[in-house]
Amino acid sequence: MNYRIVKAEPSQAEVLAELINQHELKIDPTSTSIGVEESTEIIEGFFDPAISAFMYSDGVEEPSAFYSVNPDANRKRLFTDVYARPGSNLIKDALVESLKAAAVEFPEYEHWFGVNTKDIAMRESLESLGMQVIRTYWHMKRDLAATDSVPNSRPEVSIRLVSGDQDVQTWWKLHQDSFSNHFGFAPRPMELWIEQTKAASTMDPEACFILEFEGEPAGFIQLANANYHLNGGYVDVLGVAHKYQGKGLGQILLQHGINHSIEQGREFIELNVDSGNESGALRLYEKLGFKPNSSWEQYENKNWVEFARGL
């Protein structure tokens, strides 16, 4: 099939959101549609500047497909997303183009692809390119009502909004400690972590909180604006330092996220969880009423560069 490739710009975030939603909702009508903030982040890059491009079929004015290769220099890893309009038949072509572009710019990096488990065409294309599943994640959701708000009743626990440089540094320390044993984690220098966190287009600075236990920082919760276009909340990251795990603080933090979303008038709240997470996160989410809404898988080919150069 003949097509042309054009670099994607942040100003085209709305165009991308429309394309992604066509792709995802065709596969799974229950999927949550994405908004401009999230599609902007996909174009720009989650950590470092991304290779993002639209693909235009001959004779078609609107883009038929899109790929984004998101590098993370700190972990030497690429995260690639591919989408195509239903009926365009460009899924495999977009995957191939993303591999070629990545092999030129980042041949020394690992390369991971994310895909909805219901996306049979994408999965078959990935597997034809030598990719294998390395991890499965669940997307979870719960509806909200005013009666779901539960105040913190433990006097030894307090929660405050992140405010000022000292709080941001404390937040970084808690994040690095909490996730140090998680799959795919790599330590991130404080200055770099702060820069990337603040630059994220989905960050809501009025929805990031630190929990203290007996006067000491013990955990945090970071909510995002990814679902605001649907009047929904989103738990981006939640963590409890290892020293304080097993004290029920994760439940208090998640309930605080629920309370905050209710105060903002949100109608639902969502999050993602690694199905292989051994910290008990999945049990906690289910306990507080979250239910699996969809799932997605991470694919990898250890020899992706050699494979890409042979395409």
UniProtKB/TrEMBL annotation:
List the Gene Ontology MF annotations in alphabetical order. acyltransferase activity, transferring groups other than amino-acyl groups
The protein here is known as Unannotated protein
Keyword Transport among UniProt keywords: no
Alphabetical keyword list? Acyltransferase, Transferase
Give one Pfam hit by family name.
Answer: Acetyltransf_1
Q: Does the keyword Transferase apply?
A: yes
Record domain N-acetyltransferase: where: 157-311
Q: Which Gene3D superfamilies match?
A: 3.40.630.30
PANTHER family assigned to the protein according to its UniProt record, in alphabetical order: ACETYLTRANSFERASE, N-ACETYLTRANSFERASE DOMAIN-CONTAINING PROTEIN
